[in-house]
Write a structure and sequence with these properties.
single chain, 175 residues, mainly alpha, Farnesyl Diphosphate Synthase, 9 helices, 0% strand, globular
Length: 175
Amino acid sequence: MMTEAEWQRSQYVPTMEEYMTNGVVSFALGPIVLPALYCVGEKLLGSAVKNQEYSELFRLMSTCGRLLNDSQGFEREGSEGKLNSVSLLVLHSGGSMSVEAAKNAIQKSIVASRRDLLRLVLKEGTVVPRACKELFWKMCKILHLFYFRTDGFSSPKEMASAVNAVINEPLKLPS
């Protein structure tokens, strides 16, 4: 987040690669997901945490989250003077790409990242335990729920609706 604040302060326009490299970290799923991986049942070995597969699972999950957030929060962030992947695509296109076309391109990137994440989660015989891989997948699904129609993170109405559904609406089990 400090990098993004510095970019904003200096009016630096990062490349998409710079933005996404930083954005995967600044989306801040690390403090939420990574400690939880040690509580899912199967032992997570240090060798698995240091393995490229683990880093790729985190990168793909965080990429989905960052891009979903950017797509839904584009107007709000723009009004705050912040750049995101949508505005960067438009800026770097020299005006040849519309906001709608940029959002479509972002959506394609989300689909590709989600597909790659699922492929990695379902791959057998890897060093990261299956339960841990499934946690990355479940968080990705939660992110899609959050950002399905709107920026569920900053929308109190959407957040309250999701919380009320979980608390107040009983699960209907098949008979």
